[in-house]
Specification:
Blueprint lengths: L2 E9 L2 E12 L4 E5 L4 H4 L1 H11 L5 H4 L2 E7 L11 H11 L11 E3 L2 E2 L5 E2 L4 H10 L3 E5 L3 H4 L6 E5 L2 H10 L6 E2 L23 H13 L3 E4 L6 H7 L9 H14 L14 E2 L7 H5 E2 L4 E2 L1 H4 L4 E4 L7 H5 L2 H6 L1 E5 L4 E5 L3 E6 L18 H8 L4 H4 L4 E4 L5 H5 L7 H18 L8 H7 L4 H14 L3 H17 L7 H9 L6
Parallel strand pairs: 3-4, 5-8, 8-9, 11-18, 11-19, 12-15, 15-18
Antiparallel strand pairs: 1-2, 2-4, 6-7, 9-10, 13-14, 16-17
Helix pairs in contact: 2-4, 8-18, 8-21, 20-22, 21-22
Length: 503
């Protein structure tokens, strides 16, 4: 008779229930694992054998029988070492070395060390959510306990090794069960690396980033080396609005599957800031690879994706951003299946005005030829630049401002305005950067004077229809920051100032 337990597989960002069946039959000794497992699953045989032996039980080789482990459904690819624990428990039950237990009400997950210890695995949060939905007890490594506890009401059985798990089942599991507490103690004071008050000058850029934070607008910064573009971008998280409980769970799930949760911080508490290097591949930015994983744009979901030296990124990488920037999701397709990952991020891109970086600089002469400048700027296609709502110049700062002892406005004061603007947008059900044309018509009405100004700007700057709608969305955000119900002419004028002339 086969022993059946339950485990789970990560498919994209979600977990799916997997049946682990262990069967003994007569014949020469063999140990087979079937069910479309990868190399890590295949190597589970060796880990399980040593772990069982070093836990004081008789290993598979001792029984001199055919041992077959089936991971079902067989058409789902099984990846990683997380099936070690259920395979080991199934073997101990099938061989009669462990007290019979109820297995239908449990999900087992965990990697085994050769000495029988249970090691942590990635992707525990989606598995915990699955266990809660199916009203099952989650048996997992002790190192993953804190991560699973954020699923409120989930029954958890954390273990350190196989010996401990056997003892728990013999004594009775009830007194060892822990219940998930939910996201309590998550909303603590969060510190940031950079505060706006320490950035000298650059008031125009700070204002643009405030608007970006309030409405989720993409920003492109151009300026000479050392002007402060990177510092400004790194200060942006300090003025972003706080995460909601739903966003916390969503982000923690992404980082759990990616294996990026810190041991002492099992919950993502602040909006992510991702700054990949310009040598990154399409798979690294968008997602994919031989083992499908989220890319940088998904890791930046609900936060900031900072692409420094934007023109230095490969052309195919830059163009791959077009669909996610428009739709807020990324679709990774393979011959057998398609994965959809969330990618609703704010893009902050920066670049020099020319290859040497000193075009139009008042203190340093540019030594680039016109053809070099044209070639450099052509690296950024029109469709990509047309998807960026705000474009600003970040000039060099003079000595007077650099040496000034005056402290600028603190990030917490700016964040208060941003959160008030976000509250207004939450009542509408979306942030301004996500507005579609019907919503723009409803919430971005302007008077005749504003229409005349916008018409003149379209003619002078040769703005596209998409750019026209961008101006209205940015103006709506400026009005929200000021608590204005209607868009004023001054809001339109400021929004136009963040556009550049289209050639």
């Amino acid at each position: 008779m086969a022993i059946k337990l339950f485990s789970a597989a990560i498919i994209g960002l979600d977990a799916r229930s997997i049946e682990v069946e262990v069967d003994f039959s007569r014949g020469l000794y063999s140990f087979s694992i079937v069910g479309l497992g990868d190399k890590a699953v295949e190597e589970s045989k060796e880990r399980v054998s040593s772990a069982v032996k070093n836990s004081g039980a008789k290993p598979p080789q001792h029984h001199n029988k055919r041992i077959t482990v089936n991971l079902a459904p067989a058409d789902i690819k099984k990846q990683g070492p997380g099936y070690d624990l259920p395979i080991a428990i199934g073997f101990l039950l099938a061989s009669g070395q462990m007290k019979k237990i109820e297995t239908e009400d449990k999900i087992f997950i965990g990697e085994l060390s050769l000495d029988g210890s249970v090691r942590k695995v990635n992707g525990i949060l989606p598995i915990a959510i699955l266990a809660k939905e199916k009203n099952k007890i989650l048996v997992l490594p002790k190192e993953n306990q804190k991560e699973a506890e954020i699923v409120e009401g989930l029954k958890i059985l954390p273990v350190s090794n196989i010996k401990e798990l056997i003892r728990i089942f013999e004594e009775g599991q009830e007194k060892y069960l822990i219940e998930g507490k939910g996201e309590e103690n998550v909303f603590q004071d969060i510190s940031f690396d950079v505060d706006f008050c320490y950035i000298k000058g650059q008031e125009h850029a700070k204002r643009a980033l405030e608007i970006s934070a309030a409405g989720g607008h993409n920003v492109f910064m151009s300026g000479p080396p050392g002007a402060g573009k990177t510092l400004l971008a790194r200060a942006l998280p300090s003025i972003l609005s706080s995460l909601t409980k739903e966003e916390i769970l969503e982000l923690t799930k992404i980082y759990s599957v990616s294996g990026l949760l810190l041991p002492n911080e099992p919950v993502i508490k602040k909006r992510p800031f991702r700054a990949p290097h310009h040598s990154s591949s399409v798979a690294a930015i968008v997602g994919g690879g031989s083992k499908i994983k989220p890319g940088e744009i998904t890791l930046a979901h609900r936060g900031v994706l900072f692409l420094d030296e934007f023109p230095e990124f490969r052309r195919d990488v830059i163009e791959a951003l077009r669909q996610p920037m428009e739709d807020g999701i990324v679709q990774v397709s393979r011959a057998a299946e398609t994965f959809i990952f969330p990618a609703n991020f704010t893009l902050i891109a920066s670049a020099n005005p020319c290859p040497c970086g000193f075009l139009n600089d008042p203190q340093k002469e540019c030594n680039c030829s016109p053809s070099q400048i044209i070639r450099y700027r052509r690296k950024l296609s029109g469709p990509i630049m047309d998807r960026i709502d705000i474009k600003i110049d970040v000039p060099r700062i003079g000595f007077e401002k650099l040496s000034s002892k005056k402290i600028a406005e603190e990030s917490k004061d700016i964040r208060e305005r941003v959160e008030k603007a976000r509250e207004i947008q939450q009542k509408r059900g979306f942030v301004n950067s996500d507005m579609k044309i019907p919503q723009i018509k409803e919430y971005c009405e302007i008077d005749s004077e504003s229409q005349d100004l916008l018409k003149l700007a379209i003619q002078k700057l040769n703005l596209s229809p998409r750019a026209y709608h961008k101006v209205l969305k940015v103006a709506r955000t400026i009005a929200d920051l000021e608590g204005q119900e209607k868009i004023q002419k001054s809001h339109i004028a400021e929004a136009i100032s963040y556009q550049e002339k289209q050639e």
